[in-house]
Amino acid sequence: MRSPVLSLTWHLAKSSGRRGLQSQLLAAAAAAVGSLVLLTLLAAYLGAGARADRTAWRTPDPDRHGTAIQALATTYVRDEPITVVSLAQLPHQAPTPAPPGLNSFPKQGDWYVSPALARLLRALPPTQLADRFPKSTSYGTIGAAGLASPDELVAVIGRSPTDPAVSESADGQGIYDVGLTARSVVSGFAGTQRSVFTVDDQSAVLLGVGLLVVPVIVLASAAGRLGAARREQRLAALRLAGATPRQILAMTGVEAAAVGAAGALAGAVAYAALLPALAEVPYGIGTWYVGQLWVGLPWVVAVVVGVAGLIAVSAMSTLRQVASSPLGVAQQSDPRRTRLVRLVLFVAVLVYIRMSTHGSTLKPGTLVALMVLFYGAFWMFGPWLVDRLGRVVGRFARRPATLLAARRLSDDPRGAWRTVSGLVLAGFVAGFFTVGLLGIVGLDHQGQVAVPTANAADARHTVGEARRLLRAAGVDATVGTDDDGFLLGGSDGVVARVSGGPAALDTAVTVLQPLAAGRLPYAGAYAEAQDAAVTDRLAQLGTATLAVSFLVATASAGLTAAANVLDRRRTYGLLRLSGTPLKVLDRARVRETVLPLLVLAGGTTATGLYAAVQVNKAAGSTISTSGAVQLAVCVTLGALAMLAAIGTSRPLLRAVTADPARTTD
Questions:
Q1: pLDDT tens for residues 191-228?
Q2: Secondary structure letter of residue 67 according to DSSP
Q3: Distance between the two ends of the chain, CA-based, in angstroms?
Q4: In this structure, how many other beta carbons lie within 10 angstroms of the beta carbon of residue 606?
Q5: Is the separation of the CB atoms in 210 and 367 below 8 Å?
Q6: CA gyration radius for the chain?
Q7: What is the distance, to the nearest Å, from the Cα of residue 640 to the centroid of all Cα atoms in its chain?
Q8: CA geometry: angle at 482 spanning 478 and 483, to 5°?
Q9: Which residue in 334, 508, 574, 654 is deepest, having the highest Cβ count within 10 Å?
Q10: Residues ≥6 apart with Cβ < 8 Å to 396
Q11: How far is Cα 83 from Cα 272, in angstroms, rounded to an integer?
């Protein structure tokens, strides 16, 4: 016999009326936002790895029987790194294949630049940049296959095997040269060593994914519970009429999965349409190629199916009472209490995290897992705390709106928690990435240029030549061998202290280049590259994570608040019939949100601050004191955005209570 589940589900969905359609549209919207954010996070993670892999050809695997010499160097202009790859074909050897982005192996005197570097060469005076490269009047362009980003500054230069830039003199390594300078004999360009400017990008994105994935899951789960009260009443009636628990669960799962799949598919379409705009968002070395952010059709299908499945499971999890006690649900006689086991589990997770992080170095994957565990534990603990908060506030309430809010908190703590959970969990992110921003303690290299030399005697001889070159270029500088700023890192060389700003500094680096045989002169940005690559990524990650966190929190609050109005329209109608003013109902809704926010968001923000202090302590770094203002701004804007999102459902409250007698029918 054919199952009536599908036909009955379709019939009930069609006959649910305008209010039912509104709940379904809200659930689909939540699914769309969740799908869009998840696909964007996945794109950033996979894309960061893909573009980091595109830099590995610049440090290929060495081969002592190779056919060419490859030398990597790094120079800076306007504090932006330029990767310089020098290549020399060895005589009497087989031709070396072309590096990625070039059609052929560069001949001696030929040079190629990335499109971004070509624009910079045209924009800056030759004495600040172009004079660092060969004197030929023309150059080729490096294709996208050899670049990690459209904004990356890269040059490939063909040289003679005897050129100092590729000779053994270029093989010297100072303490600042790791990852920035290298030389080897190669036979091709296959390698696994990523550029220092991209090697940590994917790990940083993974940290952001760990911070954001739980709030997104919370949003998707909340979508499955939209319209839960109306669904429970309707299905309880069917259960009393003879429907089996299995049929009830199947009907709910099919309806929620269909709505979730439609919304998730809309989010996937929005992700595909937004790819060109997402590619323009800078991260690390710059913007993206669109193809780097396309996750592929299998991942898109997996996310759509995952979001739809999560919404279906969330919806079915609300029907335990319908299956076991349909009469109690129909009479609305069972307040949704929470159990003490939630507090026990939360404390146990905190103890486990504390033991796992005490005196140990965490890998990025382990750190992400612990953050997800903390979020999951707080997600379970939140409703218990909301329940207890409602009871305490109800005991001391003196105003009708406060009493109504307290009763709602204690009667439906899970629903109240879903409204504020996004911002509460975002508070942890805000605390971690504002006051807790890493500030590496280092020496002052401002306005200094270092010229490495082979020995102290060469350094003393180089001082006079450096003064002459700088004077001829019109650069005001003091030159000597004293290195009180430790810019030379303990090596022999000359330090020029330049006055006049970035233009004068770039000119000094350019005119001093002939003095550094085999190695390029460098300024403070070169010496600080390793630390800056980490701190810059964390700063960018913090900004992006905060923005997405508050976006998800605002969407979650607005959707849940609107759904709560629809679910409680019978309650609101009865209160209106008993003489309760609409203004009191609205105030109660607002206080129902503000009370948990003050307690829970404050707690998670303090936890984020504590985590940041511990991370900085382990890294031997300082705390950003200016972040206190940023934290206050973030929390204030987040709270205002959430209250504004809740305020958008005020017209809906007015509409559902316009005819209270009909609403309570």
A1: 888 888 888 888 888 877 877 777 787 777 777 666 55
A2: S
A3: 36
A4: 13
A5: yes
A6: 31
A7: 23
A8: 105
A9: 508
A10: none
A11: 32
